Every structure is written in structure tokens, then in C-alpha cells.
Amino acid sequence: MNETLQIAAFLLLPILSFIVLIFFGKKLNGHSSTLGLSLMGLMLLNALILIVNAEPYNLTAKTYEKWSIYNSFEWFSTGNLSVYLGYYVDNITAIMLLVVALIGFLVHLYSTEYMKGDPRYSRYFAFLGIFIFSMNGIVLADSLIMMYIFWELVGLSSFLLIGFWFEKDRPPMAANKAFLTNRVGDIGMFIGIMILYFHVGSFNIKEIVGGVSEMDPGLLTLAGLLVFMGAIGKSAQFPLHIWLPDAMEGPTPVSALIHAATMVAAGVYMTFRIFPFLTPDALAVVAVIGAITALMAAITAITRNDIKAVLAYSTISQLGYMIMALGVGAPVYAFFHLVTHAMFKACLFLCSGSVIHAMHHSLHHLDDHHTDPQDMSNMGGLKDKMPITHAAMLISTLAIAGVPFFSGFLSKDGILAAVLSYYYKYDGWTIILPIAGFGAAMITAFYMFRLIFKTFYGIPKKKDIYKHIHESPLAMTIPLMLLSVLSFAFAFTANLNPLKSWGWFKALIYKYGKNHNFLNMKYVNSGIESAHYDAMYLSLFVASIGIALSVLIYYLKKVDVDKIANLFNLVGLYSLSKNKFYIDKIYNMIFYKPFLFQTRTASFIDWDIYDQKIVDAWGWITLKISKYTGISDYSILDQKIIDGTSHLTQYVSTKLRKTQSGVIQNYLLGVLAILVVFIIVINQI
Amino acid sequence: MDYIQPYLMLSSILFSMGIYAVITRKNAVAILMGIELILNACNINFVTFNRFGNFATLDGHVFTMFVIVLAAAEAAVALAIIINLFKNIGTVDVDQAKEMKG
Lengths: 685, 102
Fold this sequence. Notes:
The complex is a heterodimer.
Chain A: H1 2-28, H2 32-53, E1 69-78, E2 81-89, H3 91-114, H4 121-140, H5 144-162, H6 170-200, H7 205-211, H8 217-234, H9 243-246, H10 252-261, H11 263-274, H12 280-302, H13 307-327, H14 331-365, H15 387-401, H16 407-426, H17 432-456, H18 463-467, H19 474-485, H20 490-493, H21 504-509, H22 521-555, H23 561-569, H24 573-578, H25 583-657, H26 664-684
Antiparallel strand pairs in A: 1-2
Helix pairs in contact in A: 1-2, 1-4, 2-3, 3-4, 3-10, 3-14, 3-19, 4-5, 5-6, 6-8, 8-11, 8-12, 10-14, 11-13, 11-14, 12-13, 12-17, 13-14, 13-16, 13-17, 14-15, 14-16, 14-19, 15-17, 15-19, 16-17, 16-22, 17-22
Chain B: H1 5-24, H2 28-52, H3 59-89
Helix pairs in contact in B: 1-2, 2-3
């Protein structure tokens, strides 16, 4: 019971924050962040208490106790269908909860300064609350249906936060795009869940994993891929990645929390959970999608000038890595990369937020509302003005580039080893996976240092803006410092040897993702172990090439950028990158334009023809008919017949009333006269 | 006197006089007197037909007795009405009592 309460706190605390702030936020106003922050602090504490329970794998003794707590209750049942909701907590869940709680807490802290003065300050924190509620729901869910419910809630909160500044032009469009693009994936996910339910008879992930062996392999591949479609949408994989760069219209801390560290990782987390029953065919598709995404997003990121757009494409690329790792059978490394990426990418985003914040204030000071505060071509030389931001951003860039001593090196190295071993094993077309993996690693190192050099080094592009740049306040720099510390490899291994990835973290996740319905994971893992050194040297090599190129072009300026661009343009690469692989344009042509044409045609038929001509014609006819019936009814029936009757009655009665003299003797006389007449008449007969 | 005509003529004359009084007199008391005449004309008829008709019983006489009693009661009620009429409109002239005029 205590456990259930402790787990429930992960859902109750953030939803409490949401409810209080959405209803009483206006009254609290400035204090709303304090409330949200303290509730997040409690949740962080709770996550820390929970993770102490987690059992690490003891490498020397080779002992291991599988620790998990789970519980479920019936939600509803009709006929022979009963749906259960419940939670399942193991080491992976506990780590994920800690990541969400930690980044959530830091983003709350950061936002107290970043969002200061916003007219909807408390609503912002309310939305953060509902986001963390739904994210924790996904993480805790023990069944696909519960995961799906929170999946949609996460989509909603993402929609609300992207469109937070809805009075501007672009955020509402971006929010719609994100929501609708996610819907495409979610529909597939729902169909996949239903296929699994009708064949296994349960939504529970554990029961599905146990029960799919009797399913037709082709159908299981289809079902697995359909469920994975949800991850394609949520984790911004090709071809549904287009929403994530647009989602940068939201406030930057939101980008850090949702569109870098947690929500987009939900797709990876979900695929991690369903990994055991994905067939090898499905896994191959997953790997290829991840590879395409990783490489394509990395290439696109090179030519972005918006600081957040670079980070957005870098996020897509890193998510591609994780998905690729899942596809080649290394879910542990995917999860490892998820966590390290959450730390350094959140740090990068918060740093970019700090820069944008400073730029914004400077522009505000100059009363300049046209210059884009996010455009890197307006920055440069900020390193002296913003030392903390610069240091944090440099550390996290080294981490994402895969430099030893930093966390990204450990996880990316594992992924690349897995990819390489996959190629060793299957040969043939699978060469594209290591090419994409190592190529993206090189390009990542290149464009991340491009970002650093363009933002923090060189001479300031705009002197007057530069003059008013200041380092951000403490509430914003503390998260930066903490997250940059967590970007060191030391934080994950507690070991100063940079090549050794074993540590407390790996010990926690080591035993997970080791079961698969169709693959012999022992074999896969030994393959990864043997490819380890090849991958490490190769990744070090490509990362240093990337960094060296970047230094050469952007720091030392030995090589002219335009020349290189023209060189690459010979094979069309530059324009592909500049135009984001034309994907938005292709979608525009294939989906939006035909759809708009269709809706316009439908609208023309509906309004111009059906409504205006047919429906309104009925109105016209009715009008005419009622006009004539009105005339006949009023002028003839009413005026002549009805009124005529009453006029006649009135006339007759005016005449008759004169006989009512009130004198009884007159009446009596009348009676007598009639009597006499009667007698005469009777006598005649 | 074995003829019926004189009796019927008497009763007719009495009845006509009563009717005439009822119709022409303005005084309510006089109208009441007229009604008494009419009733008495009836009584004469009852008695007459009992005498000349082929009746074994005295039905006509009994009816006459009833009518006399009725007339007395009627006179009491009518006089009460007339007193009330006088109280209300200050006269017993029936022409003044025409609130029912339409």
C-alpha cells in the first residue's frame, strides 16, 4: 500500500500543481512558480527515494536480484472485455522517473526567471504540471492502453505549450502541426494495440510479450511496426519528424523539457518496452528508420542559422540514434543514450534559452523588435559576457559530440558498437547503418561546434546588441551548472577512466532488454562486445574530424564557407540541407495542397451549390407559398368568415336586447299573447 | 242549478280580472292581489269539475284546499319580497325594479 502511494505521488503531485494553478493561478500569480517548484521538488525527492530501492547488477559476484513493483486494478469491464490500469516499476522506470523529475524540477526553476513578466505566468506552470503528470503516466504504465491514454495527454500538453504564445502568428500553427503529425503516428499505434489485444487478449505489456509467440509472424511484424508508428510520431522520426523543428516556437524551457529530454524520449521508452516482441523484420525497419533520421537530421542541422533549429535537428538526429540502437538489438544502449542525451540536450536547450534571454533583453533595451534574437548571425563573441552559459554549453557540446570524459561518448559508443556488430553479422545492405551512424556522429560534432563558434567566439556581429548582453540570473544558471556536471562521464560511471563505461548507471540497466522472443540476446551482446573497440576508435576518429573541420572553418576561418557550400552543392547536398530535404515541400504538394483543394471543392459544392441554390430555393418557395396562404387565411377566412359571424351575432343581439325591458309585466304580456296564439292554433287542429 | 256554464264563466271572469291586474297594475301589492284572483279562479274550476264530472271521490276539493294553503304561503313569501324590495329601492312600483333590463 505504501508503495502504491509512493508511486501514485508521481501522478498526484504534478496534477495537483496543474489543478491548483489552473483554478487559482490568477490569485497566486507570482507565487505560482513557488508552488509548482516545491511540488516538483517533492517529486524529485520521491524519485530519489525510489531509485535507492533499485538493485544494481554486481559485476564481480555476478549476482542480481530482479526488483520490480507492480499493481493493477480493473478500470471497467463489459461482457468478456475487462481493461486494467496499473503501474509497473523496475530499474528502468525508476531511472526514467528520476530523469523526468530532475529535468522537470530544473526547468521549473529556470522558468521562474525565463518566464518572468509573462501575462500568463501561472498558466505556464499549470501546463508544465499536466505535462509532467502525463509523462509520468507513460513511464509508469504497465499496459499499452494506459500508455496510449497518457501518450495522448502528453500530445495535448505539448500542444498547449508549443502554442503558449498563441497571440503570435507562428506558435498556433506549430502547435497544430505538432498535434496533427503526432495523430498520424498515434492512429497506427492504436491499430497496433488493437491487433495485439485481439490476438493476445490483454493490454498488459508483460502478458503481450508472453502471449505473442502463437501469433502469425507476418501479423506480429505488422502489429509491432504499427505500435512503433506511435514512436515515429512522438520521437520525431522520419517521415514524421517535421513537427519538432516547428515546435521550437514554444518557450525555450519547454523545448528543453518536452522536445529534447522527456516527451520525445517517450517513443524510445515505449519501443524499449515493446522491444521483446518486435520481430527481426520489424527491428530491421526500425533500425533503417533510425539511421535515415539520424543522418538526414544531422545534415539538415548544418545549414540552420536559428540556434534552436540547430538543436531541434540535433535532437531528431540523436533520437534517430536511439531508435537505430533499438533496431539493431541494443535497447540498453538506447536507454543509456536516452538518459545521457536528456541531460546534455536539456543543458544545451537551457543554454540557448539563456542566450536568447540575454539577446532578447538587449534588443528590448535598444527598442529593436525586428531583429531575431535566435539568429546566430546576430551573435558572436558572447563568451566573455556570459561565462557560465558558455562553459555549460561547451561541456554539453563536447558530450553530444562524443568526446571521451563526457557522457555522450559512453552511450554513443555503445550504440555505434551495436550498429557495427549488426553490420558484421548481416553484411550486405546493412552497411548503410554504420555509414549513417558514423556519418551522423561526424556531422554532429561539426555542426555543434559551428554553433558554439558562431555564438560564443569570434568578433560580435552587432556591436550595439553585444554591449547590452548580460549573464542570466542565478535561477537560470544553476540548472545549467547542474546539468553540465551531469554531462560528464564521471557522473554515470564514478570512474575516471574515460574508456570504461561500466559504472553505477550501467549496473542498474545491465540486466534489462536482455530478453527477446526471437533473437538470442546473448549472441547479439557478445557481438556488440567484440565490435566495441572498432567502434570506439572509429567514433573517436570521426568526432575529431568533425571538430577539426569546424575549428578550421568557423574558428580559424582558414576555409571559405561558400566554397565548401558550392563544393557540396555539386552533388546537391547543400541545397538539400538548406531546404530540409524538401520534406515540408513534398508534404505540402502531396498532402496539404490536394487536401486544401478537396476541402475547397467540398466547400464550393456545399455552400455555393447546395446551400445557396438548393436549400435557399426551398426557402424561397416556402416564402411564396406562405405569402399566399397568409393572404387567404387572413383576408378571407379570418376577416370575412370568422369576423363576419361575430358581426352578425353582435347585430342580432343589439336588436334583441331591446326586448329585455326588465319589466316583468311586459314579459307576462308576451307569455299571454303566445298562449292565446297557441290556443288558437291548437283549436284549429 | 244543473248547468256548468255559469260557474265556468265566473271563473273565466275572475281569471281575466286577475290577469288584467297582474299586467296593468304598477303596485306590487296589487299584482299580488291579481295573483290571488287567478288562484281563486282555479279553485272554482277545480270544485266545478268535481261537481259536474263523474268522480267518486272529492279530489277537486282536496286540491282546492291545497291551493288555498299554498296561496297563503305564497302571499307571506311575496309580501316579504315586497318589503325587501321597498327597503332596497324605496318604492313598491314594479316599473322601478328593472335592473334586469338588457
